[in-house]
User: Which sequence fits this backbone?
């Protein structure tokens, strides 16, 4: 890897493990003893990682040496380019879209369906461009962790059983048109993908003042997915809704918590509702005007089974799933 690629890989893994641990940047900064803006700058790529930062992040996130190894990769990349210093292009801001663009999510709806062996997640978002420039792409994130609290075991599991593009079977559409997609980061348990507002037939960017529905979906087997699902609000969002659909024969029980940048996890402020349709038990929950950086986590267990796996999917960020 080049120095720039190694720095991006470090930032991506830092964001991944922070999400796995369910921490806001402010809380991670507090645990590391750094100013929150510094953590944000490292994660967005505006500041390069240091040895001290990597050590503190590794300790705070208990990442099974994953973050430390990324920093060693970064140091090795710097050595390979010595003595000539790398020429670095100006870094983009944390908002990874065109300058002058700004996205508001008018409606965010997630539906997670489990058929007994695979999970299929379908995301529908109504996006509004409140900026002055057209938007031509939208970044999503897929992140899994089967053994929370056991990072070495989880890392070993995904090294042996990585997420693959074939199993994900990612699809995306906008205005009835298929969307092309490009890989930004491809890790064993972590993917970032640009959904592009174009296909072989033409382009359909999101222009200033316009709103448009996009929909994307992907699948993961139960051995890699799991029994928790998190929604992280990183773009201004006007309405957020989640629906979980499980076989009624598994006798599912579902509960949820809410976390903000300034408060520990508390029960959801509004109750989940449930109904049954054709042998499927459907749990629904929604909220209006969720706070920026809030996290909503739903967990479940199947009372007719003894064991399970674990998953996390982060989304709603400029450039996050």
Assistant:
């Amino acid at each position: 890897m080049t120095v720039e690629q190694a720095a991006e890989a470090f930032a991506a893994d830092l964001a991944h493990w922070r999400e796995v641990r369910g921490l806001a940047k402010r809380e991670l900064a507090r645990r590391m003893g750094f100013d929150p803006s510094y953590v944000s700058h490292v994660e967005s790529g505006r500041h390069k990682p240091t040895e001290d930062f990597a050590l503190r992040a590794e300790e705070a996130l208990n990442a099974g040496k994953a973050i430390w190894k990324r920093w060693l990769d970064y140091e090795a990349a710097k050595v390979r380019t010595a003595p000539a210093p790398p020429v670095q292009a100006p870094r983009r801001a944390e908002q990874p879209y065109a300058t002058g663009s700004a996205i508001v999510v008018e409606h965010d709806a997630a539906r997670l369906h489990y058929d007994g062996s695979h999970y299929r997640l379908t995301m529908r978002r109504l996006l509004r461009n409140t900026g002055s420039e057209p938007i031509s792409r939208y970044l999503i994130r897929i992140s899994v962790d089967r053994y929370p609290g056991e990072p070495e075991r989880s890392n070993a599991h995904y090294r042996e059983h990585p997420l693959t593009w074939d199993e994900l079977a990612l699809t995306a559409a906008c205005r009835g048109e298929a969307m092309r997609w490009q890989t930004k980061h491809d890790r064993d348990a972590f993917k970032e993908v640009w959904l592009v507002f174009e296909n072989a037939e033409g382009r359909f960017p999101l222009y200033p003042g316009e709103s448009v529905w996009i929909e994307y979906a992907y699948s993961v087997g139960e051995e890699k997915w799991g029994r928790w699902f998190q929604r992280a609000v990183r773009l201004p969002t006007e309405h957020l809704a989640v629906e979980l659909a499980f076989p009624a024969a598994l006798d599912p029980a579902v509960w949820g918590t809410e976390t903000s940048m300034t408060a520990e996890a508390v029960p959801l402020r509004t109750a989940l509702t449930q109904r049954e349709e054709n042998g499927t038990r459907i749990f629904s929950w929604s909220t209006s005007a969720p706070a920026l950086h809030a996290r909503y986590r739903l967990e479940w267990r199947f009372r007719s089974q003894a064991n399970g796996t674990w998953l996390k999917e982060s989304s709603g960020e400029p450039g996050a799933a």
Q: What stands out?
A: Helices lie at 3-20, 25-32, 36-44, 51-61, 66-81, 151-160, 165-168. Residues 84-99, 307-321 have pLDDT under 50 and may be disordered. The first helix runs from residue 3 to 20.
